[in-house]
Design goal:
Elements: E1 19-22, E2 27-30, E3 33-34, H1 35-41, H2 44-53, H3 59-72, H4 77-84, H5 92-111
Antiparallel strand pairs: 1-2, 2-3
Helix pairs in contact: 4-5
Length: 112
């Protein structure tokens, strides 16, 4: 009969080079950097680069990543029109619903 583990203490669910968690000591590391240090000293873009490439970026790499991410922050015109409509703001959850629907349609049209 197989042995059944009760609870998850001591059970390794998977391994990763991205992070390390020491729950007993209250530590979370991203690629060897303490999350507290990153939160105080690194930008969102620097942490993204660290997670993706395993090291902190150079100044030029950080600038390139910021530029690339900035281009992705622009809302597609159909979504912008939909969320600016008066109907979208009559009930705020509709704005979220409309936005998700428009983005879904926009993505499908771009990849097909």
């Amino acid at each position: 009969m197989p042995q059944v583990a009760r609870g998850l203490e001591g059970v390794v669910a998977g391994t990763t080079a991205l992070s390390f968690i020491d729950g007993r000591a209250g530590r979370l590391l991203y690629r060897g950097y303490d999350i507290r240090d990153l939160a105080q000293n690194a930008t969102f873009e620097e942490v993204c680069f660290l997670l993706w490439y395993g090291r902190l970026p150079t100044r030029s790499e950080l600038a390139a990543l910021r530029d690339e991410l900035a281009t992705l922050r622009t809302l597609p015109p159909p979504l912008w029109s939909a969320v600016r409509s008066p109907e979208a703001w009559e009930w705020v959850p509709w704005t979220t619903l409309i936005g998700c629907a428009v983005v879904g349609i926009w993505i499908v049209r771009r990849i097909t």
